Amino acid sequence: MAKRICDPTSGKIGNQVYQNSRNGQVVRTRAIPTNPKSTQQVTARNNLTAAAKAYDALTEILQNAWIAAAQSYQSKARLGMSGTLTGLQLYVKVNAALLESGEAQVDTPPAIPTFDDPGFGALTCVNTAGTNVLKIACANDFGTRELIFAAAPVNSGVRRQPDVVDIGVPPEVSGGFCVFSDLYTARFGEPAVGQRIHVRFVQLVNGLYGPATDAQCLVTAA
Fold first, then answer.
1. Which domains can be identified in the chain, with CATH numbers?
2. Which residues lie below 8 Å from residue 180, measured CB to CB, with a gap of 6+?
């Protein structure tokens, strides 16, 4: 991967891929990514397919309602540019998220949601005789649905958050803490003392994701 000074560019041109990094514009040779077809990948793709097909089956009145609602939503910015979503994009965005969280699809666009403030505090992971207790302090209960995304344990020096994956819905807050050790170890196994854990909490209301809270901590011995 080489650094390059040029007009801001993002995406594939021929056999080269341009992208922005924390160190500036970079370019690399296009590579076909691996496709492990994990359970999570297959489920996500099936959800997207199901949502897209369901949109085609909507009446014209319902499709027009989604088109009108989509004017209130912007796509993720890329090189500082974004645009309003299409009705199909908003429908798939909402319903794929609902399907992933185990909820039923909706035919009418949801109202723009409001999100609660859980009042997150410190994330800690304490290892006692090989068993870890991973928890985050929370000043408030989860008034809306929270999802946890996490990365496999990394070396202590890794401070920039790696790619994270959905590991499930966290347990309710108890005694000012949300303990989610079981969710994490079910996906990644028991982390070792001295490793670093990265997690992200994201609220989901009516199929729409809210603000994300990132946290990290070292696994310490009891």
1. 1-33 (no CATH), 39-100 (no CATH), 120-221 (2.60.40)
2. 134, 135, 136, 148, 167, 170, 171
Spatial CB neighbours of 69, under 8 Å, sequence gap ≥ 6: 87, 90, 109
Closest Cα to residue 185, out of 219, 208, 157, 209? 219
What's the full length of the chain, in residues?
222
Give 91-95's long-range contacts (Cβ < 8 A, gap of 24+): 91/51, 91/54, 91/55, 91/58, 91/66, 92/48, 92/51, 92/52, 92/55, 93/207, 93/208, 94/206, 94/207, 94/208, 95/47, 95/50, 95/51, 95/54, 95/207
Cα 134 from chain centre: 19
- Give pLDDT, residue 13: 80
Q: How far apart are the C-alpha atoms of 109 and 57, rounded to whole Å?
A: 15
Per DSSP bridges, beta strands 208-221 and 16-21 are unpaired
pLDDT by residue (tens digit) across 127-164?
Answer: 988 899 999 999 999 888 889 999 999 999 999 999 99
Alpha carbon 207 to chain centroid, angstroms: 13
